[in-house]
Amino acid sequence: MHKVVKPDGVFEPVPGLYSQVIVTDSPVRYEIAGTIAYNSDGYLPDSMADQCRGVMHNIDLSLAAVALTAANVIRIRIYTVDMDRFIREGSGIVFGYFTEGRPTSTLIEVSRLANPKMLVEIDATAAPFNGQSHGL
């Protein structure tokens, strides 16, 4: 497993929601592109909650393609067009996906995403654990 480091003196605005520092001994990293909520049929849900569920499902599919899971994610970057709505309706879904440890994260409000109906996009970095096989 990756090691979480809690630096002394760093304020944690929402304790336990994310990790400040993660140490991994894996030389391999997987960068997962900005992921959106479209399903395989091209359907995009309307609500923030449903889009967050769709994004995390699609990230899960990307991780599975290289034999990794949510536990391997060491960093996420969340882009949303509505910060307050994301915090209220989506943050629990996104961060709840990481049950075995929270990745480092950045949350950014943007004026729009590629499609004006998109409310959230997330990219991720994952790394296998020491000795874990991975899909290269």
Structure explained in plain terms:
There is one protein chain. The protein starts with a strand and ends in a 10-residue tail after the last strand. The strands form two sheets. It has a four-stranded mixed beta sheet, with helices on one face. A two-stranded antiparallel sheet has the order 1-2. The protein has two helices and six strands; from the N terminus they run βββαβαββ. Helix 1 packs across helix 2. The relative contact order is 0.27. The protein is of the alpha+beta class and 136 residues long.
Order of helices and strands: EEEHEHEE
Instruction: State mean pLDDT (0 to 100 scale).
Output: 88
Low-confidence segments: none
Q: Which range does the strand content fall in?
A: 15-25%
CATH superfamily of the domain at 32-126: RutC-like
Helix content: 10-25%
Instruction: Write out the strand line-up for the largest beta sheet, numbering strands in chain order.
Output: 3-6-4-5
Category by helix and strand content:
alpha+beta
Rg from C-alpha positions?
Answer: 15 Å
Q: Count every beta strand, where a strand is a DSSP E run of 2 or more residues.
A: 6
Largest sheet: 4 strands, mixed
Level-2 CATH architecture of the domain at 32-126: 2-Layer Sandwich
Distance between the termini: 19 Å
